[in-house]
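Entry:
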Amino acid sequence: MNNYKFLIKITGQFLFVIVIIFFSTLNAKNIDKFYKSEPIADYFSGILLLNQNKYEDSYKYLKKLDGLEKNHQSYATKYLYALVNSGNFNLAVNFAKKLEKEQKDSFESDLVIGVFNLKNLKFEISKKYFLKAKQRYSRTVIDNYVARSLYNWSNLDSGELEKALNDLRGLDDRFESLKKIQNTFLHCYFDSDKTKFVFEKLLSNQDTDFSRYNYFFAKYLFSKGEKVLAKTATQNSLKKYPRNLLLNQFEIDLKNKVNNFEFDCKKIDHVVAEILYITANALSSQSAFALSNFYLNLSKYLNKNFHAFDTLLAENLYKIDDFSNAKKIYQKLKKNGEAFEWYSNKQISRIFILQGEREKGVSLLNNAYKNLYFKGVYQMFDYAEFLKNNERFSESIQYYTKILDIIDKDHQLYPEVTDGRGVSFERIGEWDKAEKDLLASLEVSPNQAYVINYLAYSWIEKGLQIEKSLSMLEKANQLKSNDPYIIDSLGWALFKLKRYNESKKYLQLAVSLMPSDPIVNDHYGDVLWKNGNEIQARYYWNYVLNLEKAEKDLKEKIEQKLIKGL
C-alpha cells in the first residue's frame, strides 16, 4: 500500500467514533458485518476519495461493502456515482437492478437503468424508468428537469411533433433556454419543414449564449446534403465565434472530408446525450463536480463517438487539480483533428507549468505551434499570449506585431493584441511603445477595466498623470466592482495625491481581498504609516518579508522602510 492510500485508510479508521451515530440505522442482524474497523475504514476511505473525485480508487473501497445498500441509501447513491464516474457502466446497471430488486432503488438508479435501455433502443423500458424518476420526490429542480426531459424523449412513439412540443411546454419555465434547445432538436428529429427556421431563430437569440448550436445547425445542413450551405454557415458562425472549438474542427473536417464527431438529431440517444451534457455543464459551473461527472458519463455512454464531451470532463478534472487524469484525456482529444490537437496542447502546457515544469510546458507548445499546419491569427495570438504569460516578452512582441501587420482596427482581436504587446513592451522597459499600444487598445475598446488599470497604475508608478489616472481607475472600479487589483490601484492613486484617509479605506479593502499579495500589503503599510499607525505599518511590512512570492527588490525597499520609515 502506498503512503497516500495508507493515510486514506488511517483517516477512515479515525472516523470510527462517528460511525456509532452514522450506522445507527442499520438493522441489528447486519451490524456485525459492518460495525467493524475494517468495513468502516473502507466506507470512509471510499467516500473521502469520491469527494476528492478519485473515482477509480473510491470504487475499489466501496465495492467491498456488498450488502450495505440494504440499510444505507447514501452508500447506494455514492457507490453508483463511483461506478458510473469510473467508467464501470455495466456494473452500475447491475447494481441499479440489484437495488430495484431489493426495493432500494432511487432517482439515480432509475436514470442508470433508463439510460442503459435507451442506448439499446428499448424505449418502452427506458420510458418506464424515466417515469419512475419523474414521479419521485426530486431533490432539486435540475433533477425534475432531467427526468421529465428524458421521459419526453423516450415517449416519442406516437410520431407526433405537436404532442412532443406540448410535452416540452410542461418543463419548468426556469429552463426556458433549455426548452428552446429541445424545441429545435424536436423539429430536427421529426424532420419538420420548419427545422431550418427554428435553428436560425435559436441562433439569433441575443439574450443567451447558443454559440454551441451553430455547430449542430451546420451538422444538420450537411446531413441534408446541403454541403455548400453547411460550409457557409460554419464560416459565418466562425466570424462571430472564432474560438468555438467545435466549429473550428468542423471547418477543417469539411475541407478534409472526414467526420470526427458523430451526432445525428434523428437519433434519440444522441439528443438525450446532449441534454445530459448541458446538465453536466450547469453543475460544473456550480462546482458540483461529482454530480456533473455522473451526468457527463451518462452522456458519454449514450454517444461515445461524440468525443467533444471529453472537453468538459477534462475541465472538471483540471478544476479539482487532478492534473494527471486531465492530461490523459487531453492526450486522447488530440486524435480528433487539428483544432482539438492545438487546444489540448495548450491545456497540457498550462498543466505542466502549474506543476512546476515550466520548461517542459514551454517546449511542448513551442513544438506544437511549429507543427501547426494552419497558423491563423487566433493560433498566433494564443501563442503570443502564452509567451507573454511565461515572461518571454521579446518573443511575444514579435508575434503580436505579425498579427497587427495582418489585421486592422475593426478586427475583434485588435484591442487584445495591442494590450498584450503594450504589456510586453512595458515589462522590457520600453515605456513609450507600451503607452502607445495601451492607448490604442482603449481607443478601440474604451471599457476594458483591466487595460485601464494597467495603464493608470503604470502612470502612477512613474509619477505621471495621477489625477487622470484616478479618474480612469474610478471608471474601472465601476466596470469591475470589488476587483482587488483595481481597488489597490485606486487606493494607491489617492495615496500619491496625499489623500491618505480616503486611500486607507480602499487599501484596507484590497488587503482583505488579497491578504497574501506582497504589493497590496506594502501599500497598506505605507498608508498606515502616513495615517500615524506606525506599529501596524511595520507589522504589514514585516509580513511582506515572509512572503515567498515577494520579489527581491520589494523586500530590499521594505527593509529600508523598517529602518528609516517613510
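The chain is about 75% helix and 0% strand.
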